[in-house]
Amino acid sequence: LVARGYHVMNLDARGHGESQWAADGDYSLDTLVGDLKRVVETLASRPALVGASLGGATALLLAAMQPQRVAALILVDVVPEVNPVGAIRIRNFMRSGLRGFATLDDAADAVALYNPLRPRPESSAGLFKNLRTGGDGRLYWHWDPLFLDAPQVAQPAMIAARLIWAAERVRIPTLLVRGTQSDIVTDAAVTDFRGHLSQLEVIDVSGASHMVVGHSNDAFNEGIFGFLHRHLPPEINRES
User: Fold this and answer.
1) How far apart, in whole angstroms, are the C-alpha atoms of residue 38 and residue 33?
2) 3-state SS, one letter per residue, for 61-79
3) Contact 175, 65 (CB under 8 A)
4) Phi, psi angle pair for 161, to nearest 5°
5) How far apart are the first and last CA of the chain?
6) pLDDT per position as a tens digit, 39-73
7) How high is the mean pLDDT of the chain?
8) Pairing mode of beta strands 200-205, 174-179
9) What's the half-sphere exposure (Cβ side, CA atoms, 13 Å) at 133?
10) By CB atoms within 10 Å of each CB, which of 31, 57, 92, 210 scores lowest?
């Protein structure tokens, strides 16, 4: 994106990646939307928001609540009505690492068990960026375990009505990128989403699961390049 003339900000949601963990354990959707709103308010022009899974839900809600601040949306494998079976698998995967891992290979085994369709890399070293070393010397996923208590994680069906409300109010160009092997986004859910958000564009990434980018980064990039070229070329808006 930078090479194509866009200014890029990569936001780690609170409790994830390099962002601090919330002292009060508040990872509610409203709080995540508030965080994103404060970042967007610092920008000189309207951005395209790109969000995967919960990040996409956060972006969709902000676009509905603050339509004057967002130029376009790219949602990665997220729809209002997620498949409950897939949501349970994600929660189980997240809980599988609560006791930590003795080695990187143990963490890689957990990923392979959750996502057997993704080719396993020759080296597990790349996983280290997603882990942190605990005081006991074990490796833990790079997110706050209290995140599992957030309503949208513990009971994802609770947010469906809010996301439908948001979809019906979004008027900006919107792209859904989904994996054809996703157990979160079904064909029926996409059809339902279109019924609430008529301008929705959809790109299917063949063979990819819920972790679309990790499975097929090149296909993901080409999809968003085309969408942005049509709706938000860099010479018009350099915040993306």
Assistant:
1) 9
2) HHHHHCHHHCCEEEEECCC
3) no
4) -65, -35
5) 8
6) 999 999 999 999 998 999 999 999 999 999 999 99
7) 89
8) parallel
9) 4
10) 92
